[in-house]
Amino acid sequence: MLQAITRFFKALGYLITLQFDKFADQYANNPGVIGVRYDEIIRRKRASIDEYVSAVAQIEVLKEKNVALASELKKSISEYRDELEAIIEEGKKTDTESAQYTALMDEYNNIKSLLETQETRQQEIDKAVETYKDDLTNHKLSLQGLLDEVANLKKEKVSAVADMMSAREEEKIARVVAGLSTDTVDKELEEVRNARAESNARAKTAQDISGMDVKLKKQKRLGAIRSKKHTDEFSQLVEAAKKIDSVEQPAMEGKPALAEA
Fold first, then answer.
1. pLDDT digit string, tens, across residues 4-51
2. What are the boundaries of each domain within the chain?
3. Nearest Cα to Cα of residue 66 among 11, 21, 128
4. Do 22 and 130 contact (CB within 8 A), yes or no?
5. At the top level of CATH, which class does the domain 2-181 belong to?
6. What is the Rg, in whole angstroms, of the alpha carbon atoms belonging to the chain?
C-alpha cells in the first residue's frame, strides 16, 4: 500500500514537472515576455553603468584634488627656491666666520630639505594625476562601449520581438497548411457533415419503411384480387370442360363400334 502511494506521488511529481516545463517553454517563447526580459536586462545593465559612472566620478574627484595639490606644491616650491636665493645673496654679504653666517647656513639647509621633499611629493602627485587621466580615459571609453551596448540591446529587443512574432505567425501558417492547426474547425466541420449524413440516412430509412408498408398493403390487396380472379377462372374452365364432356359423351355412344381386324 505504501509503495503504491509512493508511486502515485512520484507520478504526480513527474506530471507537475512536465506541465511546469511546458509552461516554462511557452513562457520563454512568448514575444511579450521576451520584450520584458530584454527590458530587465537593459535595466540591470543601466544600473551597473550608473555604479560604474559613480566610481569613475570618484576617480575624477581624486584627480582634481591632486591637480589642486600639485598646484599648491608648485607655488610652495617656487617660494622655497626664492628663499634659498635670498639666503645665498645674504650669505655673500656675511662673514663666513660669524654666527649670522652659520644661522643662514642652517636656514638654507632646512629650506633645502623642505624643497626636496616638496619636489619629490610634486613628482609623485604629477605621476598620480597622469595615471588618473589615463584611467579616466580608459574608463570613459569603456562606459561609451557599455552605453553603445545598451543602445544595441534596445534595437535588438525590437528586432527579437518582431522576429518572434513573425516566427509564430509563420508557424501558425505552416500548421494550417500541414493540417496541424490547433483549432477545432475541421473537426467541427466533420461532425456537422456526419450529423447531416446521419439525418439524411434516418429520413431515407423512414421513407423506405413507410413506402414498404404501402407496397405491402398494395401487394396484399392485389394478391387477394389475383387469387379471386384465378379462382373464378379455374371455376369457369372446369364448368366449360364439363359442358364439353357432356356434349361429346352422347355422340360417342351413338357411333357403331369398329370391327376388329
1. 566 555 545 544 444 444 444 555 568 788 888 889 999 999 999 999
2. 2-181
3. 128
4. no
5. mainly alpha
6. 63
CA–CA dist 248, 17 (Å, integer): 113
Measure the CA–CA gap between 213 and 207, rounded to whole angstroms: 10
CB distance 113 to 83 below 8 Å: no
Cα three-residue angle 248-252-255, rounded to 5 degrees:
145
DSSP secondary structure string, the chain? Answer: -HHHHHHHHHHHHHHHHHHHHHHHHHHHT-HHHHHHHHHHHHHHHHHHHHHHHHHHHHHHHHHHHHHHHHHHHHHHHHHHHHHHHHHHHHHHTS-TTSHHHHHHHHHHHHHHHHHHHHHHHHHHHHHHHHHHHHHHHHHHHHHHHHHHHHHHHHHHHHHHHHHHHHHHHHHHHHHHHTT--SSSHHHHHHHHHHHHHHHHHHHHHHHHHHHHHHHHHHHHHHHHHHHHHHHHHHHHHHHHHHHHHHHHHHHHHHSPPPPP-
What is the grid cell recorded at 115?
624643497
pLDDT tens track for 47-95:
999 999 999 999 999 999 999 999 999 999 999 999 999 999 999 999 9
B/e letters for 163-174, b = 16+ CB within 10 Å, e = fewer, are ebeeeeeeeeee
Q: How many CA atoms lie within 13 A of 61 on its CB side?
A: 6
CB distance 70 to 122 below 8 Å: yes
- The model carries a pTM of 0.50
